[in-house]
Specification:
This protein is an alpha/beta fold and 470 residues long. Helices cover 24% and strands 20% of the residues. It is built from 13 helices and 18 strands. It has helices at residues 22-31, 81-87, 91-97, 104-117, 178-182, 198-203, 214-226, 258-265, 269-278, 280-283, 288-300, 404-407, 417-429, and strands at 15-18, 39-43, 121-123, 125-133, 138-146, 152-160, 162-165, 169-171, 188-190, 207-210, 234-237, 310-313, 316-324, 328-335, 340-346, 348-351, 355-357, 396-399. A five-stranded parallel sheet has the order 3-2-1-7-18, covered by helices on one side. A five-stranded parallel sheet has the order 9-16-10-11-12, with helices on one face. Strand 14 (328-335) and strand 15 form a beta hairpin. Helix 1 packs across helix 13 (417-429) and helix 7 packs parallel to helix 11.
Length: 470
């Protein structure tokens, strides 16, 4: 493995993207036709994949097909979902299917099509560090090129005036269950790996699904449909007080508009934190179609008398968990409302316990105190998705899906991907490269609606007028 090359005479790029998930893929697609923008994106995985463990047959994306990588910013883009269908001669089948929400596997195939045909994407490249070079006024980005087995092959470095961090989220496993997940011979896996272990779960004697959101519902439904009637032996646990439907009313969906993002950003930090916790049903509930399918399947299995061997219990948290002998798991449960405790012995556990934003601390370690943080130690992010940096840093660092604390529940929503990417490009180019709507919701959030941010405005900590050390 060689040392990082030093390209001191190489002209810096305009933008380096870290991570290639749907959000940075959206940015790359919208940046593609702009000849004046030199952009490159790095991803440590060998190719694009989008929640492969949850591409369950029949599962749909929870946003309309118009919420692709580009359409809500540029409906004429060659990288639209409809153009993907056209390239596969599938426009008419899609038309007659009358699907407003595409299949999850179909969305994954669409993103793969973009990733395989879009230039400037470098997979098997792991970004190791980002630093600010004050002598050259550029970011230094160190990366490792990986071989087919994921091992380090060589080191590299590139320079850029701007970076965008789109490192995505990681499966969340509660601390009490981490030892069991780590044990190779215990069938406890996160839902992100469900399909890889699906056959083992179908064969297990008793299966418990933990988590009352969309992923938990889809896994429970898939197991229910494929286990013998009368011998389902399933238990579904959730912390929420009910297996609740996702808020999907038309005015409720306006919380996923640019208008609401701007309004949310203008609120105080304590108010924002309270809202994010209180608005869980906007993005952590179960879509009504999946709830209906679960009830229909349970009802069908009761037609000849008796009840299916399936237990659905909301309002329960898993306190601890242990192994029983060598093949079973014992879950120690607490019912929140009843304030009672019990134990559940099961043969396999699927943890549909959600995802957490990957921390930026490691990759931003080279910037250190140049990144401004809020009262909870999180990076401050301005209205146009720029990290608020020390005035000594003249470059700009953007984030994608790492700003829920500043922009609200829409941060991880696919429906805002194209708008956020266009906002970033307008900021980079300092002009309205992609015209964006001034108003996007019928609801007026607040008495004084926030205004769109001019693309040339930069987020900087103001230089103090008084030297505190004088």
């Amino acid at each position: 493995m060689t040392s990082p090359p030093h390209h001191e005479t190489e002209a810096p790029r305009d933008l380096v993207g870290v991570g290639i998930g749907p959000f940075n893929l959206s940015l790359a697609a919208l940046a593609h036709p702009l000849a004046e923008l030199d952009a490159v994106f790095y991803e440590q995985r060998p190719g694009f994949d989008w929640h492969p463990g949850l591409l369950i047959e029949g599962a749909t994306v929870q946003v309309p097909f118009l919420a692709d990588l580009v359409t809500l910013a540029d409906p004429t883009s060659q990288w639209s979902f409809l153009n993907h269908l056209r390239s596969r001669d599938r426009l008419f089948p899609f038309y007659f299917a009358e699907r407003f929400h595409s299949l999850r596997a179909e969305y994954d195939a669409y993103c793969r099509w973009v990733a395989e045909n879009l230039p400037g994407l470098h997979f098997s490249h792991r970004v190791d560090a980002v630093r600010w070079n004050c002598r050259r006024d550029v970011f230094e980005v160190d990366y490792t090129r990986l071989d087919a087995e994921g091992k380090a092959e060589s080191l590299g470095r590139t320079h850029t005036r701007n970076i965008v961090l789109g490192v995505g989220t990681a499966p969340h496993v509660p601390d009490t269950l981490k030892p069991l997940v780590a044990a190779p011979d215990v069938p406890v896996v996160h839902a992100a790996d469900y399909l890889e272990h699906r056959e083992a779960f179908l064969a297990a004697g008793h299966v418990t699904v933990v988590g009352s959101g969309q992923s938990g519902a889809e896994v429970f439904l898939d197991l229910l449909r494929h286990r013998p009637p009368g011998r389902e032996r399933l238990h579904w646990l959730g912390r929420t007080e009910a297996f609740a439907p996702m808020e999907y009313s038309k005015l409720g969906l306006e919380h996923f508009t640019p208008d609401y993002s701007r309004y949310f950003h203008g609120l105080s930090e304590p108010v924002r934190d309270r809202l994010v916790a209180a608005q869980w049903q906007l993005h952590k509930g179960i879509d009504a179609e999946t709830i209906a399918a679960i009830h229909d399947e349970l009802y069908r299995r009761s037609l000849h008398g008796g009840w299916p061997d399936a237990v659905l219990t909301p309002g329960v948290r898993v306190r601890t968990a242990d192994r029983v002998a060598t093949t079973q798991i014992e879950l120690h449960l607490e019912h929140i409302q009843q304030d009672t405790r019990s134990r559940l012995t099961t043969d396999a556990v699927v943890l549909a316990t959600g995802y957490r934003e990957r921390p930026l601390e490691g990759i931003l370690a080279g910037l250190g105190p140049q990144v401004r943080r809020d009262g909870a130690g999180r990076p401050e992010v301005d209205e146009a998705f720029r990290l608020v940096l020390d005035p000594s840093v003249t470059g700009t660092a953007y984030v994608q899906n790492a700003e829920r604390h500043t922009h609200g529940v829409g941060a991880p929503d696919l429906g805002l991907a194209a708008w956020r990417s266009a906002t970033i490009i307008n900021s980079l180019t300092k002009k309205e490269t992609y015209p964006l709507p001034g108003r996007t919701a019928f609801t007026s959030f607040g008495l004084e609606p926030a205004r769109p941010v001019p693309p040339a405005r930069q987020a900087r900590v103001p230089t103090p007028l008084v030297d505190d050390h004088s």
